[in-house]
Design goal:
Structural class: alpha/beta
Helix content: 25-40%
Largest sheet: 9 strands, mixed
CATH architecture of the largest domain: 3-Layer(bba) Sandwich
Mean pLDDT: 92
Low-confidence stretches: none
Order of helices and strands: HHHEEEHHEHEHEEEEEEHHHH
Number of strands: 11
Distance between the termini: 52 Å
CATH superfamily of the largest domain: Ribonuclease E inhibitor RraA/RraA-like
Number of domains: 2
Shape: elongated
């Protein structure tokens, strides 16, 4: 398949480079993390996800230093990536011609937005540009939200911040705010390409989790493990607080590595109260099997 941007990955290449993912995919080749896992990811903290990814060898998936457009809200979705570079006239001219051949409409900054699906997070690498770095303002933000129902991770400034803040549900993470317009100084060089957001390499289809303490990008094949680990942590926290309130164990026992007696007590408590939890008994049994003493 011919590429209209130099860094675009074809669907075949995307499948090749995300070989760890064994589940459903979009027609463009991106891994399609199931909606139920994305829903559960809303409850996961950055710290919980970071611990799982670091233990799995993914040490550079977290990035901070963002401004959250809607503080206190959580951003979760599947990454659709775009990469921009400083404008070079000869390359820009060729890509405009190729984009027209492929039916791309309008300025290049709108091309990735046209490819968004419900549940996508638009992840744009604009090399941290502030002045003349605002690829999106409130108009394109409206277009993004209408297509994806999510927000953006934008490694650059945005403009029209008052209009963006007025959008309910459009939780986004950006590098700054500036009134200038980016298009005259940049060019789009890839959609559905690996991108760099700060210290992180983000692949199309990564699960995005953004909270007040930053953004973490979760490889699709590790999302289920992140969710299960978070569920187990929440169960253990609930059990520990209950037993402390009851006075059954001392704080030093709960805060330390649990003894076999406490672990057995915990397992029995989970089984007796499984109907209170939002996840299935099978999921709980799977989590408990994965414990270490």
């Amino acid at each position: 398949m011919e590429k209209f941007c130099p860094l675009n990955l074809t669907s075949e290449e995307l499948i090749e480079y995300t070989y760890e993912w064994k589940g459903e995919r979009f027609p463009d080749g991106r891994p399609k993390v199931p909606d139920d896992l994305l829903e559960e990811l809303q409850q996961v903290t950055i710290t919980q996800a970071w611990a799982v990814l670091t233990n799995a060898g993914y040490a550079w998936q977290y990035e901070d230093g963002f401004i959250c457009t809607h503080p206190g809200q959580v951003l979760v979705g599947r990454a659709l990536t775009a990469v921009y570079m400083p404008r070079r006239p000869d390359m820009r001219k060729l890509m405009e011609e190729k984009g027209a051949k492929y039916g791309c409409i309008g300025d290049q900054i709108s091309w990735p937005i046209d490819k968004l699906s419900t549940g996508d997070v638009y992840v744009a690498d604009v090399f941290g540009k502030i002045e003349q770095g605002a690829v999106i303002g409130d108009n394109l933000s409206t277009a993004i939200y209408s297509k994806s129902g999510r927000g953006v991770v934008h490694d650059a400034a945005v403009r029209d911040i008052d209009g963006i803040k007025a959008m309910k549900g459009f939780t986004s993470f950006v590098r700054g705010v500036h009134p200038s317009y980016a298009s005259p100084t940049i060019m789009l060089t890839g959609i559905n390409a690996p991108v760099r957001i700060g210290r992180v390499t983000v692949m199309p289809g990564d699960a995005v989790l953004g909270r007040n303490d930053g953004v973490i990008f979760i490889p699709p094949h590790l999302v289920a493990k992140v969710v299960r680990t978070s569920q187990l942590v929440r169960l253990r926290d609930a059990f520990g607080k209950l037993r402390l309130q009851e006075g059954k164990y001392a704080p030093g026992q709960i805060d330390d590595r649990w003894t076999r007696e406490i672990e057995d007590d915990f397992s029995g408590w989970v089984e007796d109260h499984s109907e209170q939890f939002s996840f299935s008994k099978e999921a709980i049994e799977e989590m408990l099997k994965g414990r270490t003493w």
